[in-house]
Amino acid sequence: MNANEHESLVKIIVGAAYEVSNVLGAGFLEKVYERALYQELMARGLGVRTQVAFPVLYRGHCVGEYFADLLVEDRILVELRCVESFSGAHLATCINYLRASGLPLALLFNFQKPKVEWKRVVYSRPGK
Q: pTM for the complete prediction?
């Protein structure tokens, strides 16, 4: 996927999140927004999977699993929150999720406020 296609996909995901926020407003549980965003992304013709498991490895051994809220086009992780504001812990969690999945990009959304907030979280493997 080239950079333009990648950015086009990010724009579609962000636009879908704004649509969900505009329709539902604030105040629901994260799972409600996850299901709504899944429906919106599917309606926009994207391949989306929910609760995709990624193993967490320690010295070659699986020591746990991480479950992505949404995986879009097998390329971008989408994590949803309903919190007062993003914290360093939310960003660190996304980076760990990227490490576990091997993917370079996650989009973190917060549906707690009247207007959805979002952040792009990028992880590049050491030595790359």
A: 0.91
